[in-house]
Design goal:
There is one protein chain. The N and C termini lie close together (10 Å). This protein has five helices and three strands; from the N terminus they run E-H-H-E-H-H-E-H. 41% of the residues lie in helices and 26% in strands. The chain is globular and about 45 Å long. Strands 2-1-3 form a three-stranded antiparallel beta sheet.
């Protein structure tokens, strides 16, 4: 989606076992202080860590933390949101669209 907001460039995806090993040997992602659930659920990368930490206010963190795991590419006015589970069956479109709309509403990117 294209937003009216200017979003710092970042990539967010569900954290996996290899990410945890990578952190142990020195490869790091951005962890957000005071939100260990978010930081353990997601692997967050950016060339602008301070701007990304500012972008993820409490409401955005809670929205991402409490729902299913998403993949996000963002930067400038663009925000791309998807799940890695293959093609969504046609019968599941209405629920999937509602899930996306609910998350975008909580993220308040207008």
């Amino acid at each position: 989606m294209k937003t009216a907001a200017s979003i710092p460039d970042f990539y967010l995806r569900p954290e996996n076992f290899l990410d945890k090993i990578g952190e142990f040997i020195g490869f790091d992602d951005i962890d957000i202080q005071g939100h260990p659930g978010f930081s353990s659920k997601y692997h967050l990368k950016s060339s602008f860590p301070e701007a990304v930490v500012s972008f993820f206010n409490n409401e955005r963190i809670v929205a991402m933390e409490n729902g299913p795991a998403w993949n996000v590419y963002a930067g400038g006015p663009y925000f791309v949101l998807f799940k890695k589970r293959g093609i969504v069956p046609v019968a599941a479109y209405p629920n999937y669209i509602e899930e996306v709309k609910t998350l975008l509403n909580f993220l308040n990117l207008e």
